[in-house]
Write a structure and sequence with these properties.
Order of helices and strands: EEEEEEEEEEHHEEEEEHHHHEEEHHH
Strand content: 15-25%
Radius of gyration: 20 Å
Shape: globular
Strand order of the largest sheet: 3-8-9-10-11-12-13-15
Largest sheet: 8 strands, antiparallel
Distance between the termini: 32 Å
Helix content: 25-40%
Number of helices: 9
């Protein structure tokens, strides 16, 4: 298995239809790894409380925001997600000249969740992640198997008004602000000379390592990245194809556009094989705060054979508890400590049923095509329903509390008839 991993996209006006930001990510992980969609409500915490992340314990904050996450089921953090303030984040594995520390610290996926829980804007999420990097560092095995798969991380972060790209090398980092158009990231450093925020020692460290002479224009990607490897070449190809797909639809990018991009197999964005797309996310966030953001998740592998199911934050009805399915919730004992002798079976009911249906789609011709058509019809129905909320707002929030789980039930009915 040659891990390559992930592509993340964001489109802002005027590249999108309407005054909306459209965010998308494919999570590319080991093909046998289960990804789940989970919701955690906003919560107040006691003074001196700690939070147990995947490998280490860190200080908790006084208040955490409500989050919806798509995460590998074995760890605490997440590959991608959104919070009640419509901040969306996805991370990418990156490798460069700075050595990757295998010592257990915060995973990039932990940083995704921590930033979503603690930041009410995209720029604030940059600050949260970089502060945590400085204090705790990043590191640790990024697979449940003991295979020593480690990496640095880059992040694409958006909110209602702007987006940020944050790329890290150990504790060092550079960040680029995106206010219009589109941007995508893959498994390569992509920030060049436009640096809007940076680690205070980013340049002096590069000089000390003899990567930069202190006189030439400072190009973060050129200075901190490997010059050429097969892994980087593959990432460059996917990133270039992603830009072309975004450019093709510039001015008209919407949820369906982003879903189609994430489903694209010819470009390698929808990855197949031992390392494959195990979960996907698309978010549509209006700039107008009077309208909700809608966050779509598959919760199953291969978006081409999956249904994007919608989630909307409902915060004004305190007596109702938001739910997602499959959801193990706060009591889920999936952390790496103590280490398991063998991996437990983490396959949730939707994953199990999807495995069977995916095989039917691949092997039964007309029967499989009929299932795909029914899945797309369900997805299109939900897109039409969500457009009403995106343009008219929410009149009855009680209808949305079980939006994701109700859509999962409808997906099950399609599978049951397969």
């Amino acid at each position: 298995m040659d891990p390559t991993s992930c592509d993340t996209f964001v489109a802002l006006p005027p590249s999108t239809e309407g005054q909306r930001i459209v965010f998308g990510k494919n999570s590319d992980r080991p093909c046998d790894e289960v990804q789940e969609v989970v919701y955690f409500p906003a919560k107040d915490h006691e003074l001196d409380e700690k939070v147990e992340c995947t490998y280490i314990e860190i200080e908790q904050v006084a208040h955490t925001y409500a989050v919806v996450l798509s995460r590998p089921a074995w760890l605490w953090g997440a590959e991608m997600g959104a919070n009640e303030h419509q901040v969306c984040i996805g991370n990418e594995a990156v490798w460069g000249k700075e050595s990757v520390d295998g010592k257990e610290a915060l995973l990039g996926m932990d940083l995704v969740r921590l930033a979503l829980e603690r930041a009410d804007t995209a720029e604030r999420a940059v600050d949260v992640i970089t502060d945590l990097l400085e204090k705790y560092g990043q590191g640790g095995n990024c697979m449940e198997d003991e295979c020593g798969f480690t990496y640095h991380n880059s992040f694409l972060i958006s909110d209602r008004t702007e987006a940020w790209v944050l790329e890290t090398a150990g504790k060092y980092w550079a960040a680029e602000k995106v206010e219009a158009g589109f941007r995508n990231i893959s498994n390569e450093y992509s920030i060049t000379t436009k640096i809007d925020k940076e680690h205070p020692e980013l340049r002096t460290y590069a000089q000390e390592q003899h990567w930069w002479n202190g006189k030439a224009q400072f190009n973060f990607a050129k200075i901190y990245a490997y010059s050429n490897t097969a892994r980087i070449e593959a990432a460059e190809g996917r990133c270039s194809e992603g830009r072309k797909l975004l450019k093709k639809h510039e001015g008209h990018i919407k949820a369906e556009t982003m879903m189609d991009i994430l489903r694209n197999k010819e470009s390698g964005i929808n990855m197949e094989g031992m390392f494959m797309t195990t979960g996907s996310m698309v978010s549509v966030v209006p700039k107008d705060q009077n309208f909700p953001g809608v966050h779509f998740f598959t919760g199953t592998p291969d978006p081409d054979r999956s249904v994007f199911k919608p989630f909307i934050f409902v915060l004004d009805i305190k007596q109702l508890k938001h739910t997602c399915s499959p959801c193990f919730g706060e009591e889920d004992p999936v952390k790496k400590k103590p280490r398991f002798q063998s991996k437990p079976n983490r396959k949730h009911p939707l994953f199990l049923k999807h495995e069977v249906v995916a095989a039917i789609i691949d092997n039964t011709g007309e029967r499989g095509q009929k299932i795909v058509e029914e899945m797309r019809a369900l997805e299109q129905q939900k897109l039409v329903e969500m457009e009403k909320y995106l343009t008219e707002g929410i009149e009855d929030a009680t209808l949305l509390v079980h939006l994701f789980t109700d859509t999962v039930d409808e997906e099950f009915r399609i599978y049951s008839n397969a």
